[in-house]
Amino acid sequence: MQKIQKNAYILLWSIFLSLIIWISFLSISSQIAKNLKENSELKEKIITNNNINNKIIEAIENNNFEKIELKWNEVIIFEKSNYYKTWLKENEEIYIKTTINWNVTIKINYWSPIYYINNNDITINWIINDKETFVSWIGEIYIKNLWGYSNIDIISENNFETKFKRYKIIKKIWNKDVIKENNLIKIF
User: Fold this and answer.
1) From 59, 67, 75, 142, which residue has the greatest number of CB atoms within 10 Å?
2) Rounded distance between C-alpha atoms, residue 130 and residue 32, angstroms
3) Residue-averaged pLDDT of the chain
4) What does the pLDDT read at residue 72?
5) DSSP bridge pairs for 131
């Protein structure tokens, strides 16, 4: 009788240990499978982001900011080059370039004053205190906030270049355009 109890005891312990080993094996193998899946998704995401970055760099190098088609119903759309809205901290500066003679409106939405000067013709300069100013120039203009934290709009009929350009990656899902990414890139 004691031998049967001993054998039953050993059998129960062996079943218990086998169950622990089996559960450990399942846990470890499921964790490995999860990590492999995450790694492959991460690898695919890195490849996709690298392709998008290469297309954006190519657009900057070619100065071609038209709509760029990507795969899976995605497109890159750059902001219009004839409108720029920004916040400027005290003494912060921005530069705007153009290759043709153009007219521009500098509109102060909040706070003031701001100062602008044409780098090609330093006689074209002014401090803007009021809400809206009309300026005409060619080349590069330098705008500096003189006080506080100002919000300005720069509006023109022609395209111009700024130091930063905003772009969106839009994905078409069914018949809806969904913004997947909204970002800012440095041009010069």
Assistant:
1) 59
2) 64
3) 82
4) 77
5) none
Ordered DSSP codes for 24-63: HHHHHHHHHHHHHHHHHHHHHHHHHHHHHHHHHHHHHHHT
pLDDT at 1: 57
Query: CB–CB of 127/113 below 8 Å?
Result: yes
DSSP letters along 83-118, please?
EEEEEE-TT-EEEEEEEEEEEEEEEEEES--EEEEE
**CA–CA separation, 134 and 48 (whole Å):** 44
Instruction: Give the residue ranges of the chain where pLDDT is below 70.
Output: 1-2, 99, 119-126, 129-138, 188
What is the spatial distance between Cα 168 and Cα 154, in angstroms, rounded to a whole number?
Answer: 20
Query: What's the whole-model pTM score?
Result: 0.58
